[in-house]
Write a structure and sequence with these properties.
Blueprint lengths: L16 H15 L6 H8 L13 H13 L11 H18 L3 H4 L8 H16 L4 H26 L6 H12 L5 H11 L9 H19 L1
Helix pairs in contact: 1-3, 4-6, 4-7, 4-10, 6-7, 7-10, 8-9
Length: 224
């Protein structure tokens, strides 16, 4: 009678730069960018922190690498779409990516280094703006308006995401005690707007602001 041998341990996946960076990205997504350290990352991968230096230069190299991964997830403008539809799609995709990776919106503004995904993204946006017929000067302004909206709104929304929705009524009640009394009627109205149930089919404030920018660019084009 043949005796089955016990299964051996699973083969260890060799360490690589790609594996290190994806583990770092997952750690940042799960626990926040503040949790990312060489020691913690080594623990996540089951290796000594020193062994990571065979694949990455330092923590800054890791930060640059995970931002590159995040930005590569943004859907670039597709050929065949109108400039307005293409830029709208890409801006919404960028916002969605930064929502999936909440640390990335601020980090992408502060790090330096080789970032091909970033250069492809910038070139695609600038290219569609120029190809629409906008001048180089207006394209410069338009690009920064779009980037400010994507990054700024995402950073602002990330702060709201830290608030437990079940606590909103109590927070609002406390705030309304301070601003009530008739001196700030529009602030009170605004607070009540935040407490209203949102239409799940509505695209929300991000898309509203984005459309204001794109509609404004369309009017500029029509006037040239």
């Amino acid at each position: 009678m043949a005796i089955e041998s016990a299964p051996g341990p699973e083969p260890r996946v060799p360490l690589s730069r790609e594996r290190v960076l994806h583990a770092a990205l997952a750690l940042a997504d799960r626990s926040g960018i503040e949790s990312l350290s060489m020691r913690r990352l080594g623990q996540e991968l089951g290796v000594e922190a020193m062994s990571l230096y065979n694949h990455v230069a330092n923590k800054d190299d890791i930060l640059n690498g995970i931002v590159e991964i995040a930005e590569s997830e943004i859907q670039l403008p597709k050929p065949g779409m109108t400039w307005k539809a293409a830029l709208r799609r890409t801006a919404i995709s960028a916002h969605d990516v930064f929502e999936r990776h909440p640390w990335a919106a601020s980090l992408t503004l502060s790090i330096s280094g080789s970032r091909p995904a970033r250069w492809r993204y910038m070139n695609a946006i600038l290219g569609r703006l120029r190809q629409s017929g906008l001048s180089a000067d207006v394209t410069d302004l338009a690009y920064h308006a779009l980037e400010s909206h994507v990054a700024g709104y995402t950073l602002w929304a990330a702060q709201l995401d830290d608030v437990d929705e079940t606590q909103l009524p109590d927070l609002a009640a406390t705030f309304l005690k301070e601003v009530g009394g008739g001196q700030y009627p529009y602030v009170v109205e605004h607070v009540h707007q935040h407490l209203k149930e949102r239409d799940p089919e509505a695209e929300g404030a991000f898309a509203f602001g984005l459309d204001l920018i794109l509609d404004g660019l369309e009017r500029i084009l029509a006037a040239t």
